[in-house]
Amino acid sequence: MTAERQEGNGKWPGMAIRLGFALVALCGALWSAAIPFAVQASTTQRIVVNRFTGLAIESFDPVAYFVDSRPELGREEYEAAQGGAVWRFRNEGNRASFVAHPEIYGPQYGGYDPVGVARGVTVAGNPRFWVVSGERLYLFGLETNRDAFAADPQRYLALADTRWPGLERGLAQ
Q: Where are the domains of the chain?
């Protein structure tokens, strides 16, 4: 540090204070701007769909979680409309299975995170964070929620099953 700066010639302390205030103001503005985007990212539909494409579970094939034991993208030529959403499948066999039994192959709670539902909130699930438990597909908003659910699914399902009807009534048709 130079002697001039050590002596505090008046430039550096004032500048540091102004920069500090500017940084606080910038952080506040960014935080305020981020809140509307977080609110827009939430969905109020009974089935989680991409609001731009109308596709359920980001175009992943819901049947593939069962038959391939992993998420697989569906193809445009194998689509089906069900529950106000468009679903994509890898092949005609997966499409036919889903159309015959959407309650089995479709993600439970409309694709909302069951840990969130158990807490009384609807948080959109991510098709990359998933568990098949009790022959049903569950999607999670966070990897940590998936891990907690996998460790004790009955605990979360008991709460989620109790809270889901009330949450579902508050969602759009």
A: 3-41, 57-169
